[in-house]
Specification:
Blueprint lengths: L1 H14 L6 H39 L5 E5 L5 E2 L5 H5 L4 E16 L2 E10 L1 H6 L6 E4 L4 E2 L2 E7 H7 L9 E6 L13 E12 L3 H4 L2 E5 H7 L5 E2 L1 E6 L5 H12 L3 E5 H4 L1 H25 L2 H12 L1 H9 L4 H37 L20 H27 L1
Parallel strand pairs: 4-10, 7-9
Antiparallel strand pairs: 1-12, 1-13, 2-11, 3-4, 3-8, 3-12, 5-9, 6-7, 7-10, 8-9
Amino acid sequence: MSGRLTRFIARRYLFSRKSHSVINVISVVSAFTVAVPTAAMIILLSVYNGLDGLLKSLYKNFDPQIKVSLNEGKFFSLDSIDVQQLRRLDGVEFVSGILEENALMSYRGRQHIGTVRGVDSAYVRMIPLDSMMAGGRSRLTLGDLNFAVVGMGVAYNLGVNVNLFDPIEMFTPKSKGNNIFIPTSFYQEKKIMPGGIFALDAETDAQYVLVPLRFAQELFGQAGKVSALGISVKEGADEKEVQEAIGQFVGKQYKVQNRYQQKESLYRIMKYEKAGIFFIILLVLVIASFTSVGALIMLVADKQKETFTLSVMGAEQSFIRKVFVTQGLYISAAGTAAGTVIGLGLSLLQQYAGLVKINSNTLLIDTYPVIVKPFDVVLVILSVMAVNYLISYLTVKAAAK
């Protein structure tokens, strides 16, 4: 009964015709200052969700779903793991050998240091390479011929043209057999024709060149060895359970990572940035919410006669404070509701209609990515209401004295 009466009196004080004055104008302004940061928080968090989803989708097209590599060292023999038995584990779809190492590349007088990733036929079945092609073909072999699929950034730095019959020369240092009198004994050189150019993201495009696994093993002098195994999980299988099963199968000397763990530092930075922007806007909200301080103080001053009447009727000080705190919450609730509607509306329009375009021909998307998550919306609403409750309570407590 006390709560219902408190809300009734608060509504009467706030919305009665006699109270229509400059206090109401200040209340509207206070609600507006709450609405703007609320909408901004929802929009920015949705944008960060969209960027996170975009990054995951990009790396999904290049990195294996599960990666097995050594805890110590770089290369290991394929014979050290029973690959055939690994393929028979529940949930495992494909197993691909990967050999990855840096190399100096030269093409028609231009040079570039990048990463050569040697892959086998299973890798092409796991990764949708065709969908990333910006020119040429995605094939890595044709009979006995080897082809390289070059990242767009690497192709730009080297000036690669897949229509010309000029090979890419790749150089890597030899670990043994060097002779100071023969300079060429210090490095290994192999040539490969560029067959296609892929486009994914600026960082990957400027770093990677895909070649057949056997070519990479000969280039780096690692016959029968790989630097990692790439594994894809069958549709419907639990990725975490498959990852744990693979970890038990290969043993403790190997680390088994999912896509998130392979790019853990990048995703961690994204989470920190999202949390940082949330608290920065929350601080802006705290500062903006101080406009409600003036409104509440004026409400308390304007209703002195009414509060005196309530005191005479037996109302306690705590009850009167609750009335004005409730008024402050009504103001903030109106601002929160308006901000939520605006923020959600704009975010959903961008998510499904793509109103804001990106004017660029080099990106894989043409609109800014936005993903609305219910958890973020609830978090924003609760945070805004908690901040405004605290400000209203402290203001009324001080003003009531």
